[in-house]
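User: For my dataset I need records formatted as: sequence, then structure tokens, nothing else. Please produce one.
Assistant:
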Amino acid sequence: MKLNLFYNPLLFLASPLRAVASPVQFARPTAGAVTYGGKPLHVEWKYSEGPETQLESKQYSLYLCAGGNDINTYEPLMPLVEQGLLQEMNSFSAVIDPKLGGESPNAYFLQFSVEASNGTIFFYSHRFTISGMTGAFPPHIAAALKAISGTTTGPRTFNNLHKRQVGAVPPGAQADLPYNEQTGPTRYAPVPTPPPTKITLKSAAPLFPTSEYKIATTKLPVAKVMTTISRPPVETVKQIENTAAAAADHEDDEMQRFLKRWQD
């Protein structure tokens, strides 16, 4: 099945801080639905009709989130799809680890992010409940859920098209913290340091501390870190005009001499 995503980029550029109608609509889970931890979560979405445009990137990411509706009051808990292709599918199923979060009515929702030429657009589903969860929410997430108790509406469409961010990170993530201080199932590696143009040192101290580890002697528990995302380095491109005259075309000179033979 071939699917196209519809949106008007001029609308985003003209009103970057304004809420816009979402071209991505979730069919499952429905608003207020109840699913179960440890069992598959079935997700379906569709694209609304509108002016046809083509995104420079056909990739999208899908995350399970929990928390409030405002930025910095919710967090992505688990990546369901990373760098998926828009035209390949519009449904997905994944087993939810019960330890990912707590059991609170309508605490969970989905985040669908799509790359554009100058930023990232985030779309959100309605809220739903995951029963049988055995984990716990951080205090700020629990407080945000208490503040929106009784609603099934998820966060509004969010975009950062007005300012391009290299390696865009979903709102509420902890990409600016040192790796060993980050919490949650998604971690962000630091930006790689570009190599120098000259080698001047015989040896160098490590930039970051080594990661702690233990040698497994028994069966290990479920991993707390589900994925690590490396942020790309910032690149600067400088354009310089070439003012040199074009070289003479030898073949063109021969053609001119050939044509002069027929001027008589």
